[in-house]
Amino acid sequence: MKIGELAERTGVSIRSLRYYERQGLITPLRKANGYREYSPLAVETVETIKLYLNLGLSTEEIAGFLNCVLMKKEAFCAEVMPLYRSKLEDIERQLLQLNQIKSNLEERIASIQQEQKESE
């Protein structure tokens, strides 16, 4: 299938598919006229990439284990669990930071509102 059909079948833009190709995540065959030709398995590969992107992983991280998860179950790919744990730790740190920012903003709002009440 051509890149336009792959884009249509997966809901991924042609630009993103070309990016995935540059990152080594998908590999089309090249016809004599230079057109990309994708195998039917490319749909599954792109859907798998989308899954991992939705988990917050980068294409570089996905490239480290994509072939493994396409060949085996995710549970049998040693690279996956450490990456998931690391990503979860990152998210937990970000949540702590965001909660601190939220608390600081709430304090500032309360302080300003108190000042406004006192000046009335």
TrEMBL record:
Location of the HTH merR-type domain: 1-68
SUPFAM superfamilies in UniProt: Putative DNA-binding domain
PROSITE patterns found in the cross-reference section: HTH_MERR_1, HTH_MERR_2
Coiled coil regions, renumbered to chain: 88-118
Keyword rRNA-binding attributed: no
Source taxon at top rank: Bacteria
Keywords: Coiled coil, DNA-binding, Transcription, Transcription regulation
Any one GO molecular-function label of the UniProt entry: DNA binding
CDD domains with a match to the protein in the record: HTH_MerR-like_sg3
Any Pfam family the entry gives: MerR_1
UniProt name for this protein: MerR family transcriptional regulator
